[in-house]
Prior knowledge:
Layout: E1 9-13, H1 17-29, E2 33-37, H2 40-49, E3 54-58, H3 66-76, E4 81-86, H4 89-98, E5 103-106, H5 111-130
Parallel strand pairs: 1-2, 1-3, 3-4, 4-5
Amino acid sequence: MDNNAPSRRILLAEDEEAMRTYLARALENAGYEVAAVDRGTAALPLLESQQYDLLLSDIVMPEMDGIELAQRCNELSPHTRVMFITGFAAVSLKASRDQPQAKVLSKPFHLRDLVLEVERTFEDLDQALAK
């Protein structure tokens, strides 16, 4: 990552505290700026008030699931890319159907796989912007 480039901003929505801390730390270590929340409803005010390059969301969460959050994100912040993380295969299929442009990463995964997928998402975004 170019040290002179502005850091990419990621909004992480994950209800499991240990996983949220683990993912946020890995992404910060990779050079990203991370805001982490424990539910979709906590992510909405951030999406309304700030700019994020990526929404990284668990799918199964209390109050508002990740798919509904992604739909709201598309409305509030259309430029924000979406990536899901889930431990449920059936939920992964539903996410792929409801949000076809979103990447779905199934748990368990290595942190380096997550970071590589995030980097790939930003490379795709940069290529699209360069056209």
